[in-house]
């Protein structure tokens, strides 16, 4: 049995709490948050506290708090030589106060409080200062059906950056498509199956292999018409830059005639 | 019963053929392709031909051929006053020869020959010169479990452009993430669940609502670190442009200090 104390009550902590509750080999001994409001409704299931001095002993303390709070909060923990991990993709392991044994338990997913999360779809990137602690984090990930990956600090920061591309930037592509189609009174629902299929394809095939479309085909007529159709200069810049990026990836050379419309 | 003659044997025609074969209210009377090779193995299921002069009468002729071939091939059809549609997102209805009644049957999905396609995930954008033909195309779409959408020429071209953003450009985001993570010997599999979740989220929520990450939060420390991590200038340009795009969407102002590294 692994005893866990959760620190923080945001998106990540809330999902971890629910997952640990359902895991047979994990017990959440305490749940701390600086404001009591977020956790008080759980008081029948676990011990909820908002005073760090009440923290008990546990196998691991999971600090799922805002990136900026990790360093300072880890300093104020009223104990030493225990195992403390944070859940951030970008914060260094060394930002945790060195009075405790440090680690990282970074769930590479996009959490929001409303949506349920099945942890079998959450890869967990783990890193520890002491090799002996690695197994515990692996067990913890597996206890909630997650797949653990041992990752170095540098790799984790690269993964966090890659996640911006596949998550935030892809989502912005959806947003721009939404803007463009809304302007012509087109129901965005029409595009949803294609969004899913695009994500599905790269589960089996590399993104390189699954690329299609006018940029990859170097279909100049369509490329020109699309630039003409785009009324927003920023959208045109994005269209040109990403078309060039696709063509570079696939070894094609094409230059848009004019960077600006008119 | 709707009788169909298919013209072309590429990705779209092949998937349509299989779907029509399974549809109770549709019969594929003939299947034409200029090269016999691609269709000859179907000769026991339908009449396969590679000579336009052998074309029989049917309720609708579906020309699923390369965009560039639509106009010329439609001219060479040896009949008039019949109903002919193409399947392209970008070709005008008026590119079809006006000696026949014209229409469009554009499946908004990304097809590839290997992968099976469930047409319940394929919205079909339909457009007809004569209003009376609209119902037949609707029935045809519904016969293969697709959802038909009546769309104008302008809307269809905007949808085709939007599809480039959600499909080709998102896929290029996956590709860049693949490059970045490969360079650090990170298994791309770790990113796949996030790719799926990102696409899943916008099935229920708008892309505006589902945006997260350092650009949206205006997390300057992370934005700077990411730019520093990116070794490829093109990747940096994309990071900056898309960060600015997200920030504009969400009403945030942030300027990257230096456009170029070093
Ligand atoms: N959201 C994701 O998709 C995701 C994915 C992977 C990793 N992460 C990482 O997981 C961590 C938590 O993210 P989150 O999305 O759960 O954040 P969140 O929903 O914004 O919640 C932040 C939590 O941190 C607490 N907190 C903030 N500043 C604090 C301070 N100075 N002292 C004590 N507590 C403080 C907040 O307490 P109050 O309730 O009192 O405000 C809240 O419980 C971050 O490191 C993040 O990078 C997030
Ligand atoms: N692929 C998609 O995801 C997708 C999605 C929606 C709409 N579409 C549209 O559907 C249409 C077909 O696309 P596709 O992907 O199926 O294309 P494809 O796989 O490249 O197949 C093209 C077909 O057109 C035939 N063809 C080409 N030039 C011809 C000519 N001059 N005369 C007669 N036949 C000719 C080819 O015949 P041969 O076999 O003899 O070469 C082949 O059967 C296009 O308008 C495309 O824009 C495609």
UniProtKB/TrEMBL annotation, chains A, B:
<protein>
    <submittedName>
        <fullName>Predicted oxidoreductase, contains short-chain dehydrogenase (SDR) and DUF2520 domains</fullName>
    </submittedName>
</protein>
<dbReference type="Pfam" id="PF10728">
    <property type="entry name" value="DUF2520"/>
</dbReference>
<dbReference type="InterPro" id="IPR037108">
    <property type="entry name" value="TM1727-like_C_sf"/>
</dbReference>
<dbReference type="InterPro" id="IPR008927">
    <property type="entry name" value="6-PGluconate_DH-like_C_sf"/>
</dbReference>
<dbReference type="InterPro" id="IPR018931">
    <property type="entry name" value="DUF2520"/>
</dbReference>
<feature type="domain" description="DUF2520">
    <location>
        <begin position="122"/>
        <end position="246"/>
    </location>
</feature>
<dbReference type="InterPro" id="IPR036291">
    <property type="entry name" value="NAD(P)-bd_dom_sf"/>
</dbReference>
């Amino acid at each position: 049995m692994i005893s866990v104390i959760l620190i923080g009550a945001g998106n990540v902590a809330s999902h971890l709490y629910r997952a640990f509750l359902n895991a047979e080999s994990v017990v959440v001994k305490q749940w701390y948050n600086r404001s009591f409001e977020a956790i008080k409704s759980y008081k029948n299931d676990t011990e909820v506290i908002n005073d760090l001095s009440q923290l008990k002993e546990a196998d691991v303390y999971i600090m799922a708090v805002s990136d900026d709070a990790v360093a300072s909060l880890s300093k104020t923990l009223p104990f030493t030589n225990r195992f403390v991990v944070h859940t951030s993709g970008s914060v260094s392991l060394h930002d945790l106060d060195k009075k405790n044994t440090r680690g990282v338990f970074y769930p590479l997913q996009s959490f929001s409080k409303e949506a349920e999360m099945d942890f079998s779809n959450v890869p967990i990137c783990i890193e520890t200062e002491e090799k002996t602690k690695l197994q515990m984090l692996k067990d913890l990930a597996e206890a909630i059906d997650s797949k653990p990956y041992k990752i170095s600090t540098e790799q984790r920061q690269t993964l966090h950056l890659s996640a911006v591309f596949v998550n935030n930037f892809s989502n912005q592509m959806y947003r721009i498509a939404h803007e463009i189609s809304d302007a012509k009174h087109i129901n965005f629902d029409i595009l949803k199956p294609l969004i899913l299929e695009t994500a599905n394809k790269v589960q089996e095939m590399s993104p390189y292999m699954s690329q299609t479309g006018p940029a990859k085909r170097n279909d100049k007529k369509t490329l020109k018409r699309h630039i003409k159709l785009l009324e927003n200069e920023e959208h045109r810049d994005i269209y040109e830059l990403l078309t060039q990026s696709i063509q570079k990836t696939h070894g094609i050379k094409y230059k848009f005639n004019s960077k600006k419309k008119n």
